[in-house]
Amino acid sequence: MDSLTEVASVLTQRARHARGLIQRDYERLNLADRYLRGFHRAPFIPKKANPEFRALVKRSFDNIVPLIVDAPTNAMGVDGYRRSGSDTNAPEWKWWQANRLDQRQHQVHRGALAAGHSYVTVLPGMRPGEKRDRPQVRAYDAVKTVAVYEDPTFDPFPLYALHLDRTPGDGGQEPHTGRLIDDQAVYHLDFESGDPKVTKVEQHGMGVCPVVRFAPAVDLQGRTQGLVERVMTTQDRINQMTLNMLIAQHYGAFAIRFATGLAPVEVLDEYGDPVRDENGQPTFLPPVLDPSTLLVSPNAETEFGQLPAQSTKDLQDSIAMAVKHACMVTETPPHYVMSDMVNMAADALAAAESAFMRKVAEVQAAFGESWESVMRLCALVAGDRAGFEDEESEVVWADRGNRSFAQAADAGLKLSQIGVPLGIVLRKVPGFTQSDIDEAVKEWKAAQEQRLREIAASQQAKAPDEGVNDGDERGRAAGDSRVPAGAGAHSR
Length: 492
Known about the structure:
This protein has helices at about 1-35, 50-60, 65-75, 95-100, 100-115, 225-250, 315-330, 345-380, 385-390, 405-415, 420-425, 435-480, 485-490, and strands at about 80, 120-125, 135-140, 145-150, 160-165, 175-180, 185-190, 195-205, 210-215, 255-260, 265, 285, 305, 395. The chain is of the alpha+beta class.
């Protein structure tokens, strides 16, 4: 009984601690999520702004954040998983396909790049009708999920993790339910009364907490930062400058004509008498100024003039500069976001993308370790202990560079001529998936074996004929050295 009480106390402490971490980071992570979805902080507006001005404010939001997050997301994708010493996909690759991770991997990558980290869980089937040896892979965002590590920098698996079904910002209510996962079980929690209470326990018995963190970069204190946080201030500047440009276009983009000393046009009634106002003063028609109006004045002192239209080029240049700054701090090629970089040479494009490709390689190294942990957990759930303990296995990333097919084919031909295996060569060809590579290598090996069999059969077919011909030649040579019988008798 004391043991059960101690376990319940530990679970309560862990749940409180994890929920406190989620609430601590909620404002920061939720703000980043809002910026990604286009819900930005509004630009500065006067307190007494009219409806026309407020309408311009709504039109001033120019969200570049998704483009910055999508650039590295679209540049990477897992295409295979190999165990050590193998050139084909591991058996647990079927669980990747079964969990539709070809598409869901991009959700994991996008969430990690945007917020700084995301999470993936691997658990055996626990619902009615699900098989226990069938891994269930699920992804969770950083806003409602947290993992607690003993060493957050180097540990592959956490001590425990908590996912809440709702955060404090969802409708202003406290979370009611959640799931705590440790190395033994999944605990369903109820926060209705304040303190978490365990309502259900599902044993998974994996021996490790089956939660994997995906983070593009983790410092030595275990902290992460997403791409969105780096550009939120720049995004605010872009919105403010866009509003200024809209105001300049709306109120000053057209030339303004003016006239001084115009003789007013008096309003007359049907009898030709002046129409007077409530004070007995004559009324006058206001002058109409539009492109179709010809202004004429009998007053010799009337002056006509025009105010020039206001240029918005400086504002446009300022917006472009802010966009380039956002690209600089996130190492995003400017031509991914801006459309004014046209007719660039291949060397210029390669230089613009060099820093970006180095960043993608760094992110792939981090995400690759996480996906390898996910696949090892899949092997553990499926009962393959050797697959779980294989720490030399690696994921295979698809080549999504900007090289043309002709360039890749020419490079592949040169590599094959110096003896590089076909499987490695085809990985460098854009458009080839791992399944295509495996099929091509299989067909190539079959063709090579068939060719060797044909050569061997041809040599065996020639061997008897060549033996007879050799004997004839040897017989003829020997007969030439002997005296024919007829010739000997005739001589005697």
